[in-house]
Amino acid sequence: MGIEFTSLDEFEKKMLRLAKKEYPQEAKKFMRQLARDTIKIAKIKTPKGPTGNLKRGWKVGKLYIRDNSMSIVVKNIAPHAHLIEKGHQRGRVFRTREGNWKTIKWTKNVAFVPGNEMLAPALKKIEVEIPQRLKNWITKMIQEVGL
Length: 147
Prior knowledge:
- The protein has helices at 10-22, 24-45, 53-56, 81-86, 119-145, and strands at 58-66, 69-76, 87-90, 93-95, 101-103, 111-114.
- It is α+β, with helices and mostly antiparallel strands.
- The chain has a domain at 10-77 and 117-145.
- It has a two-stranded antiparallel sheet with strand order 1-2. A two-stranded antiparallel ribbon has the order 3-6.
- The protein starts with 9 loop residues before the first helix and ends with a helix.
- The relative contact order is 0.18.
- Pfam families: HK97-gp10_like.
């Protein structure tokens, strides 16, 4: 999943490139703040669960700078996060009393648990806010430089 900046005009795109080139630390701070805000929204949608590991598992990953683009990783380190996000099959593999794993064939008793999307709605919400945030950030950069 990614976010593209398509609603910016030419001047804003040039200013964004200039800001990334001249003020890389400020651009990195801006990206990290976007990632933290995405996590805040994702945590609201995340179910608590018995241990709370899923809710606490949201982390901001590495910031990548390639050519003329910047990207940052938002991830959940809980091993079952992808199952909760996308859904999973239930009742197919289980442990017997002896401690062995047993797999049953597909039957009508095997149910699919639908996913509880956590990250996708957060990304959609942040994507709507990004153009205004970028305009504010560029305006702040222009005022600091004195253009």
